[in-house]
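Supplementary Text 2. Reproducibility record for the structural model of the 448-residue chain.

All settings were left at their defaults, and a single model was retained for analysis rather than an ensemble. We include the record here because the model underlies the residue-level annotations in Supplementary Table 4.
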Amino acid sequence: MKRSLTTKETVAITSMLFGMFFGAGNLIFPAKLGIDAGLNIWSAFFGVFVTAVGIPMLAVVALGLSRSEGVVELSGRVSKGYSLFFCTLLYLTIGPLFAIPRCASTAFSVGAVKLLPAGHEGLFLAAFSLIFFAVVLYFSLKPGGIMTWIGKWLNPVFLLFLAVLVIAALWKPLTGVSAVTPAAGYETAGGAFFRGFLEGYNTLDALAGLAFGIVVIDVVRSHGVTQPADVARNTAKAGIFSCLFMGFIYLFITLISTQSAPICENATNGGEVLGLIADHYFSAAGSVLLTAIVTFACLKTAIGLVTSCSKAFVDMFPKGPGYNQWAVIFSVVSFGIANFGLSSIVAWCVPVLMFLYPLAITLVLLALFGKAFGNRKSVYVWTTAFTLVAAVFDMIGAVSGMVPGSALLSTLTAFAGKVLPLYSLGLGWVCPAAIGFIVGLIVSRKEK
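Retained model, structure tokens:
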């Protein structure tokens, strides 16, 4: 009986998982962070590392150690109804509503649009996204080959192109980190950390970590490791290696962006930052290089997301469409939403993330330390209930910033600011989650 993957198999699965993780947001958000953080880059990077590397890593590890078949079973420790609600919203967020269409719109807006004639951008975006999702659907309909497609082919090509850009920028930096003035909100080390912490939400990786766990578990089993404890150990190992490597890439992207501040002062997003860096070091060829980097990064992630979401919906709705039908549905819906443009997708994603991330983080932590309280249901229920209420107010705070002038939203936001510690930092859920955990422990001891 096989208990462990070989080194070659571990490397291949790690590469596959990294490839699924590292997509649109993983390129553009660290790049913008580097410009904004300036000389406080290390504090901001540590904040991003927690939410964009640490929590996704813990999510995969939690799924392995809990021996759950996936996030559906794990969240079912709260209740079946909550599991259906949470998982449906989670998979729609990292799937056809936000993350998958963002892959196509990012690949177009950051890279391809620069190679096309000016004007008719809407038509070009439609044509590009149609081809993009046709390729995604082709590979997604063959889920058994996902490790080969992503781990052995798309990921190495992406890393090769990215390495060319990073090495060029590190070789001849335009300025030193200490010479770059931080943007508003990043003036202090503490402020930079919290801004980086929230910026890590935008990568969607904590949610993706919960979603991708089922794919990794299936691949580990397909290599002959079948015992639950062995599957858990090998899944956790792949999760740790892939997320640490992802953090390594984040560090370089953030650093070269800060060191390129003199030519990126007017950049409004991370895509523009990377475009200016590529143009500076490679002139006309820079646009071609950046297009290749972004397209391969987004393509492999979109394939992983369609595969994961389709498998999850088959499990959640066994009497509904089959895997192939879900893959087609998600690809078609993602194609439609991608044509609203990158800015719209990113803007409307923020409130949903402010609601979902606290629920995902607490679920991961409860799974990791479940043995300490016997995985008792009361602890899961009370912690989640308190977190959910606070997360609603965090979401309202994000919406109020997008809809100025609303008296109701302003009133609710002011109320939350008075009763929830850390609310102004976007972390109003932290104290309620801790209180819910304590209440859950007390209730579970009485029940016992």
